[in-house]
Structure formats: structure tokens, C-alpha cells
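in:
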């Protein structure tokens, strides 16, 4: 499968000369499975450019949109996703077990007056709600009947909750996305660290929340995000092959991301690990 990053900035979009290399769009990822299914994860501002690319390409009209949660940086791009306004498209929106109603409600609510000039009635795509608990019905909805791919979800440790996802390809290779999750603090609905380690066990590619340095985290405990060290430790303990650092803090310039990445690589060497670590960058694609 191929994973393309359309946005990996956390909290708010950050255009400008200091964020050109890693990007300023908030979270959106495209997963193209080996059998041609398109799974989009999150509708942050990055989904606008993905929508433009899909419209230009014309061929892929059956889309699955997985929502990690409904915080603005993961939701606010949806009214600018052009395929939603075309009757040619069918979009199944999923946001974890029991969350289907709330995800649709959140998408609708942000377009209600006075928040947006165009309401949900302008949406012309076939929009349907699914869930992603891994049951046979969701397997069918998410990936399509007869596909050898599977999609698993796990609750995030984040204020107001949310979902992490693991997509496993026909060849058994797995991509895991855990954004907006705080490893060192327990939020309602969140799980113990060991359960996230097991969820990521042996993954070929993990994108994990790494918003803060250790110094910053002293002031941001309970805000729902992890540190660089937390993300690296989890990836090493789970035997992950490649780790992409994600949900870059809005104040983190490109040069600062480089510095933090260098710190992570030195720390990985100290731990005698072969983990391949990089910082997620908008516009890059990763084969899994
Ligand atoms: Zn976020
Ligand atoms: Zn969040």
C-alpha cells in the first residue's frame, strides 16, 4: 500500500517560510491499498489538496474517510473537499465503534450557520456513516467485500477521546496511525501504554504523535499529546520498523523539527535500536 501525507501539522495550520519543508496543513493522510481502495484518514486542512488531486484524476470515486476525532485541526478541511460536492463520489465516513453518529454530527455542525456560509445540503456526494470496530460489517464497509486488507482501531488517550487505526495489507504489512494521543497521562477512554505497544507490534510504518520536547511537556501535561522520547520508546518497544514523527507543534519551525529529529536518532542509537526514524513531511509518500 502507499501512504501519502497531505497534512501533518498539529493544532492549527501554519503557513509561512518557516514551515515549508514539513508543511503547514493540518492532518490528512491518504492510503491507497494494493487492490486500489482509497482510505482517507482525517479531514484537516490537508484534505483540500487531496480533493483537488482526486477531482483531477477522476478515476477513484469510492472513498472511505476515517476520522481520528473531531477536534478542529482534524475536521476543518471537510467543507473544502471538492469530491463531497460532486454526485460522482460515494464517501463512507467512519470514526470508530459507536462514533458514527457523532462524526456525522460534527461534520454537519461545522457547516451550520453562523460557522460556514454553505450548509450540508450542498453536499452532493453519497455520504454514509460506518464504524471501524473490525467486525465483518465494517470490514466490508471500510475495505470492501473480499479484500484481504483489514482495518483495526484503538481508542486514543486524548481529551474527548478519538481513534487510532491500523491498516494491514494483503502482504501482511501494516501501517499504524496514532495521532493526538498522550502516552504518559490517562484520559477517559484511553488505554494503558502496553496496549498501544501491542497494537503497534511489528508494524512496518508507524506515524505517532510527537508534539513536544521533554521541556515543553512539563507545561503541557493533560493536553493530549506525546513527546519525541515517548514516541521513539513506544516504537522501539513494539519492534516497529519505521517511525514517522507527527502532529508537529505549530511553533516548531523546519529547523527545529530537524533538531528534534537529530535528537531522536541519537537517542535511538543510544538504545542500540535499528528503528528508522523520520519526521513526517507534507507531500511525501511512503510505500508499506
Ligand atoms: Zn490534533
Ligand atoms: Zn485532538
Amino acid at each position: 500500500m502507499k501512504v501519502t501525507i497531505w497534512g501533518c501539522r498539529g493544532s492549527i495550520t501554519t503557513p509561512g517560510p518557516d514551515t515549508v519543508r514539513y508543511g503547514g496543513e493540518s492532518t490528512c493522510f491518504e492510503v491507497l491499498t494494493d487492490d486500489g481502495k482509497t482510505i482517507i484518514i482525517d479531514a484537516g486542512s490537508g484534505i483540500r489538496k487531496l480533493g483537488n488531486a482526486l477531482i483531477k484524476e477522476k478515476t477513484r470515486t469510492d472513498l472511505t474517510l476515517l476520522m481520528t476525532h473531531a477536534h478542529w485541526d482534524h475536521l476543518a478541511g471537510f467543507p473544502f473537499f471538492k469530491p463531497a460536492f460532486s454526485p460522482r463520489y460515494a464517501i463512507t465516513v467512519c470514526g470508530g465503534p459507536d462514533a458514527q453518529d457523532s462524526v456525522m454530527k460534527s461534520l454537519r455542525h461545522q457547516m451550520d450557520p453562523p460557522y460556514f456560509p454553505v450548509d450540508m445540503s450542498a453536499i452532493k456526494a453519497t455520504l454514509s456513516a460506518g464504524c471501524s470496530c473490525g467486525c465483518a460489517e465494517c470490514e466490508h464497509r471500510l475495505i470492501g467485500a473480499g479484500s484481504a486488507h483489514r482495518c483495526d482501531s484503538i481508542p486514543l488517550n486524548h481529551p474527548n477521546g478519538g481513534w487510532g487505526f491500523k491498516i494491514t495489507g494483503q502482504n501482511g504489512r501494516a501501517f499504524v496511525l496514532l495521532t493526538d494521543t498522550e502516552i504518559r497521562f490517562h484520559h477517559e477512554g484511553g488505554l494503558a501504554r502496553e496496549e498501544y505497544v501491542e497494537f503497534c507490534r511489528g508494524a512496518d510504518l508507524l506515524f505517532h504523535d510527537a508534539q513536544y520536547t521533554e521541556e515543553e511537556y512539563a507545561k503541557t501535561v493533560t493536553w493530549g499529546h506525546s513527546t519525541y522520547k515517548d514516541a521513539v520508546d513506544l516504537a522501539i518497544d513494539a519492534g516497529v520498523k519505521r517511525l514517522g514523527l507527527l502532529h508537529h507543534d505549530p511553533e516548531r519551525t523546519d529547523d527545529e523539527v530537524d533538531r528534534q529529529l537529530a535528537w531522536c536518532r541519537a537517542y535511538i542509537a543510544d538504545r542500540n535500536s535499528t528503528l528508522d526514524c523520520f519526521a513526517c513531511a507534507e507531500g511525501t509518500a511512503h510505500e508499506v
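note: The chain has a mean pLDDT of 91.
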